[in-house]
Amino acid sequence: MKKIFLIVMVVITAQVSLAQVKTIKGFISDAKGAPLPAANINVKGTKNGASTSFDGTFAIDAKVGETLVISYMGYETKSVVVGESGTVNVQLAEAASTTLTEVVVTSLGIKKSRKSLTYSAQELKGEELVRAKDPNLMNTIAGKIAGVAVTKSAGGTGGSTKVTIRGNSSTTNNNPLYVVDGVPMLNISSIQPNDSFGSTQGGNRDGGDVIGLLNPDDFEGMTVLKGASATALYGSQGARGVVLLTSKKAKEGVSTFRVSSNTTVETAAYLPKFQTSYIAKPGADESWGAAQSTPDHTRDFFDTGVTQISSFSFSTGSSNSATNISYANTSANGVLPTNKLSKNNFSIRQMGKFFGDKLTVNANANYTSQYVTNRPTSGLYFNPLTGLYLMPRGNDFEYYKNNFEKFDPARNMMVQNWMTDRDIEQNPYWGLNRNKSKDGNQYMNGSVGLNYKVNNWLSVGSRYNYDRVTSEFDKQIYASTQGTLSHANGRYINITDVSTQNYGDLIATINTKITDDLTFFANVGTSFTKTSINDETVLDSDPSGLGITNWFTLHNFNSNTGNYQNYGFRREQQSIFAAATFGYKNMLYLDVTGRNDWSSTLANTGNMSFFYPSVGVTALLSEMIKMPESISFAKVRASYAQVGNDVPAFYTSPTSVYVATNPQNINPTVGPRPGTNLKPESQDSYELGTEWRFANNRFGIELTYYNNKTKDQLLTIPAPATNPEGYQNYAYNGGVIKNNGFEVLLNARIIDNDKFKWDATVNYSKNNNEVSGLPEELGGSVILTQPGVNSYRYSLINGRPFGVIEGINFKKDTQGRILLNEDGSFQKTEFEEVGNANPDFMLGFTNSFKYDNFFLNFTIDGRFGGDVMSLTEAVNDQFGVSRTTGDARAAGGVDVNAVYAPGTTKAGQAYAGKYDAESYYSQVGGRAGITGEYVYDATNVSLRELAIGYTFDIKNSKIFKAANLSLVGRNLFFFYKDAPFDPNISLSTGNGLQGIDVYAAPSTRSIGLNLNVTF
Question: Cα 232 to the chain's mean position, in Å?
């Protein structure tokens, strides 16, 4: 009887135990450990189900012995039997049938499945950012993303990078927003040139940008959001597109130590071509003298640059914590003598989970320090290249190199040794050694984030982020520097800019099922962004100069006239936003977003608030309709959005400002035009797209059409001198900029077997741009780069694309013949359009080959159409140093089709013979010459990036986890180029000074070794 009783009790106890319900918590990831959001977890045989949150975690009630069925589109379904453990961690293998459903990082750092996106978002893996490293990681994406134009700075190593997404759309700012882990970062430059002549306060220098201060090795990937629908949740900050960077995170149960070393050598490429057959006349500073062979001294001036980037990182993770620590050092010697860079990056990131994994805490800190000596400048002032290129032939350059200064007994000191006192020329070595500059940049970033999982479908998170950027420019200019640039006793310039940004948000995330067929994912939140940009302190001994020669200290200034402090720009935005995605049977998705901003820069306008809505829909045709077996995936999408862009700071609340060039006028630079209420720019954006995959996902194509119209552009005009407000300029809204175009993305795994793999990607983009609605009182145009005494200006003109290059042309008759004056000189036009800086279309071609352990990757980048102008060639011609002028003299002059103009004594008579070369180029060449003759086709196709290497087989190693070594190169050569310089170089990341070369440092060709080891 006792035995029977015991047996019955055991059976009953077991049944009770099996029937006991408990909460199972878990984490769903892919094969690499990356979380899979919105994965489905169902208890087999019941209606009980749950979905993973954005970080791949879930919780579900189940009984011991029941089976959890875990599924995710594009991955193999997996079943797990519930045991005694309350934790389930599952990795899903990628299914063979599709690769299109990977997780993509979107606005606010939210991860979504690619299949559900209603807009275009292109992603690059972290290896694309570091395969052939550049100190500015944005340079590494050139040619890899459709619709994104990346133009490298002429400022050399450490310079900023101009990035334009789907064309220029604003008269005030066309730079994208950069976001790290969902948080907008402060990305500013202390200065960007907008003067083709060259600033007398240090030259046309590039102050660098914050994105260039980041360590590329810190990031596991980048996503570019191009259209307004994709960026609407960022409001006005994201109106020009968003570049999202995602930091590397430690994997649970894995500790790694990574070392990366990249060493490249750079050589100056694509220099101007010079004549070596004619010298200068005795005592002349132009080379229009007798025929005589002379060496070309220009190429030997440039050094072989060396860039060394070393990066170290450590990461470790457990079930409730993760740590990432990294350090990187960049040291570089540029191709210009004495140009050096030193950069150090420190980063620490910590994650912890508490209260049964309900609370997740993230904190990180970053610090970057960068110093650049003698950063290359463009323009005609403080530029060693003008003296290098223009030195009169027949002079001994080596003598001036070794004796750039000489003793002056009258002043009892060393002074500059050079053969001319032209304001645009100095001895190059005097400039490098006695006009030395130093740029310093410090970037600090710290953030903390909390996320609390309230239940299976709701989590609440909050983040706070602080950025601080300090930039300093220091230049010591010794006595006897050219008089336009310096006082007789020398000059000292020290400029400091400080910028800060505070950002905070509070976001609730909802991820649930309304029914078995209808899913719901939403974010509701609020945020604030408070920025203070470029608070500036300027110490400049000019115009009064230094009291004691070459004593570079504030105490030695003769007066404080050149010293001043100015507030930069203040802005605070407060926002509320919401986004919801409805999914029906994993085949139909609807996105709806809304954001409302209140901006301090709209004070005194009567309405500080503006709203941005967006709506998008995606249909997975391959899930809705039975497709032929050859079609693996098919999707169509459409979206509409409105975004805006508030006005710059102090436009609606004008503030006095001090400018050293006119210290008596401290009136506000700009204020609202009387009777005008300034309002934000507003953009209406439409986007249509489709994505297809074929042959078991071996081939894919994505097509996108977009149409953007940005109205209420912010314009300024000179204010009447007698205006009662005292404003120097009036601001008001007017003008429209339209952009529409196509983007095509093709990818294919052309060969795929155990030994050999070949993947290829082609991206094509064409953007049509038109400016309209500029007021007639402005002549239907706005000048972005003022010409001064130069025959170049950059303008917006009604009916034309953004950025027309204007110059001076020959004046011609109806038959196209050049008109001559009585003395035989050329007649010239006024300013007129001579070119357009925008490409007709862009094309990128990326290939990846793998054979056993060998790999080869390369990117071909092409820009087709558009124009560029070279004032370098124009001035070289005027001075008689270019090869063109040498060839013209050897040919006995220049052939011209010209006639004497009406009104002259020889009216209608053709010019006989060849035109004297010196007379021709003295009129046509020069910065104030006939610049229409110096416009070139900007079309170019280049081998942008190359990496060929070997991955070591270390499966049996107890020390190493991974290692590879590669030969890498950047900008190796052009397959085609018409311009006499690299047209992919920009003098400024601002709106002006585009499509122009003014003695910019030559672009470089680099080649080197890249070693990566993981322990």
Answer: 20
Strand partners, 114: none
pLDDT digits (tens, 9 = 90+) for 245-284: 999 988 888 889 999 999 999 999 999 999 999 999 999 9
Instruction: Label residue 436 exposed, middle or buried (CB < 10 Å: 0-12, 13-18, 19+).
Output: middle
Q: Which amino acid is it at 152? A: K
Contact 696, 96 (CB under 8 A): yes
φ, ψ dihedrals at 212, nearest 5° = -75, -10
- Calpha distance 726→434 (Å, rounded): 41
Distance of alpha carbon 797 from alpha carbon 775, whole angstroms: 10
233, HSE (Cβ side, Cα atoms, 13 Å): 26
CA 875 to chain centre: 31
Q: Are 218 and 326 in contact (CB under 8 A)?
A: yes
**Angstrom distance (rounded) from CA 115 to CA 38:** 12
Tokens linked to 606: 């009567």
Average of per-residue pLDDT values in the chain: 89
Interhelix angle for 883-890 vs 871-878, to 10°? 40
SS3 content of the chain, % helix, strand, coil (to 5): 10, 50, 40
Question: Strands 940-951 and 458-477: what pairing?
Answer: unpaired
- Compute the half-sphere exposure of residue 875: CA atoms within 13 Å on the CB side of its CA: 25
What are the beta bridge partners of residue 996? 869
**pLDDT, tens digit, for every residue of 36-63?**
877 888 888 776 878 787 677 888 888 8
Residue 717: closest CA among 702, 727, 705, 704 = 727
- State the average pLDDT over residues 656-673: 78
How far is the CA of 118 from the CAs of 245, 531, 586, 675, 676, in angstroms? 20, 32, 14, 42, 38
Distances (CA, A) of 844 to 168, 225, 760: 20, 18, 11
pLDDT of 100 over the 60 cut: no
Q: Which two tokens stand for residue 323?
A: 């740590």
Residue 818 corresponds to which tokens in the numbers above?
Answer: 């050049």
Predicted TM-score (pTM) of the model is: 0.88
Which residues does 207 contact at the CB level (< 8 Å), separation at least 6? 160, 189, 190, 191, 192, 439, 471, 473, 497
Phi and psi dihedrals of 400, rounded to 5? -70, -25
DSSP-derived 3-state class of residue 230: helix
- pLDDT digits over 334-387, tens only? 999 999 999 999 999 999 999 988 999 999 999 999 999 999 988 899 999 999
- How far is residue 237 CA from its own chain's centroid? 15
Tokens of 115: 């299949």
Q: Please tell me the distance from the alpha carbon of residue 1010 to that of residue 961, in angstroms, as a whole number.
A: 17
Burial (CB < 10 A; 0-12, 13-18, 19+), residue 15, is exposed
Given this model, what pLDDT does residue 3 score? 46
Question: How confident is the model over 525-552, as a mean pLDDT?
Answer: 93
CA–CA dist 377, 482 (Å, integer): 17
Instruction: Give 393's Cβ-side CA count (13 Å radius).
Output: 26
Phi/psi zone of residue 439: left (φ > 0), alpha (ψ -120 to 50 degrees), beta? Answer: beta
Contacts of residue 960, defined as CB under 8 A and 6 or more positions apart, other chains included, come to: 952, 954, 1013, 1014, 1015
Which segment, 70-74, 323-327, 750-754, is predicted with the most confidence on average?
Answer: 323-327
Closest by alpha carbon to 453, among 23, 83, 21, 22? 23
Burial class (CB in 10 A: 0-12, 13-18, 19+), 253: exposed
**Span 833-853, mean pLDDT?**
94
Report CA-CA distances (Å) from 125 to 13, 216, 667, 903, 1011: 53, 11, 50, 68, 18
Residue 981 DSSP code: S
Distance CA 114, CA 126 (A): 18
Q: Summarize pLDDT for 646-655 with one digit per residue, the tens.
A: 888 888 888 8
> Is 193 in contact with 375 (CB distance < 8 Å)?
no
Q: How far apart are the first and last CA of the chain?
A: 65
Exposure of 757 in the CB half-sphere (CA atoms within 13 A):
13
